[in-house]
Design a protein that fits this description.
With 89 residues, the chain is of the alpha+beta class. It has one domain: SH3 type barrels. Helix content is 15%, strand content 35%. Strand 4 and strand 5 form a beta hairpin. A 5-stranded antiparallel β-sheet has the order 3-2-1-4-5, with helices on one face. The N and C termini lie far apart (28 Å).
């Protein structure tokens, strides 16, 4: 089974070549470099779904909340902090 995890874009590197568009994405305070080449319209603060280091889709904060609540229920987010997780309603 493949799983994509939502994360919040915190920075985007200047683009030299769109095929190599990269940025930093925060997953509950854990920051990873992510390939953003599949998503031309993302901005800092957007939530994206990341699979194997590549952002494959853009989601709104509400959808990110749902995914994080499912992961939390499964016990899959204990190692993540709560700094950049979407606010739980």
């Amino acid at each position: 089974m493949c799983l994509a995890i939502p994360g919040k874009i915190i920075s985007i590197e200047p683009i030299v070549d769109p095929a190599f568009k990269k940025g930093k994405v925060s997953f509950g305070g854990i920051q990873k470099d992510v390939n953003l080449c599949m998503l031309s319209d993302v901005e800092i603060g957007d939530y994206v779904l990341v699979h194997v280091g590549v952002a494959i889709g853009k989601v709104d904060e509400e959808e990110a909340n749902k995914v994080f609540s499912y992961l939390k229920a499964m016990g899959e987010v204990e190692e993540l902090g709560t700094d950049d997780l979407p606010a739980q309603n």
